């Protein structure tokens, strides 16, 4: 194709694009995309038009409510004339019942202005006091879970030995937290993945917060420190079991295949992160079994920190308490019974914590000695403790 033909094509392409560029002007936007209101109270937000509509074209704006039984809006619709200059409209929201709902604006005709950001997520609560109590409970269990790694590190350092700490549990824990950190960091810090999330859930909210980032990275660090202690302190004859290695191999193959599919764009990177989170959930279900069985075989909990268990138990109980408080405050029991995964995992972890407490204080109480396991551990060094 000649140079003159290329220039002509470029010139006429702008002519072809002109109707598209002039078809949509400005945007209709909400002043906020998150509102919190008490039951039977009134609140409001503004809708603003950034530019005037094209000449000779009017628009009708209809306010849609996701759950009309939870809230009502006024006005429910209004018109925008072509002659109107950029302006704002006040939308009043009356809370009728506790819960979550989305208020969104629909514009007719749909090609006259961009209204993709003209929506508000409304949270209707029964009590502001419960909201603050829930927040305090959340910070307490966040601290409890964050600190829970250090009693085991301390006991290892004090004994100069990791005999009693099961390597299968430790290796599964490390892989699980790495998967959790990948999910959190990817969804929070990688714009491409965050955009994929919002493309999939246009009116959603990024589920990862900065405290999730801190906890997951800190968990990887603390678990890695514990793994490092296994290389410098006495380990006896302990090794990662064949069963655990097979499980790690299955997880590795699954993640590798998912990674390749992401690189070749068969799946999105967001899906890869979800698969990482599924590995973490699977590990949470099985990681305590090796340690519990190891204690049973040794008939002792020497070397296994009960302080870690108490902190994990505290965090698990408070985590479930927060879910119950939120479910009541927002009348959102479906978050527990409709999708029981998170609550069930918390309950499962607490159940194992109770089992460990029974092992430590009832079954193997005051037993500094333990049954030596050939091929697993050696005799406990003098001065061993079970704190």
TrEMBL record:
Gene3D superfamilies: 1.20.1280.290. Keywords: Glycoprotein, Lysosome, Membrane, Protein transport, Repeat, Signal, Symport, Transmembrane, Transmembrane helix, Transport. One of its GO terms (cellular component) is lysosomal membrane. The keyword Transmembrane helix applies. The chain crosses the membrane at residues 130-150, 162-183, 213-234, 246-266, 272-290, 302-325, 345-364. GO terms for molecular function: L-cystine transmembrane transporter activity; symporter activity. Belongs to the cystinosin family. Interacts with components of the V-ATPase complex. Interacts with components of the Ragulator complex. Interacts with RRAGA/RagA and RRAGC/RagC. Interacts with AP-3 complex subunit mu (AP3M1 or AP3M2). NCBIfam families: 2A43. Cystine/H(+) symporter that mediates export of cystine, the oxidized dimer of cysteine, from lysosomes. Plays an important role in melanin synthesis by catalyzing cystine export from melanosomes, possibly by inhibiting pheomelanin synthesis. In addition to cystine export, also acts as a positive regulator of mTORC1 signaling in kidney proximal tubular cells, via interactions with components of the v-ATPase and Ragulator complexes. Also involved in small GTPase-regulated vesicle trafficking and lysosomal localization of LAMP2A, independently of cystine transporter activity. This is Cystinosin. It comes from Temnothorax curvispinosus.
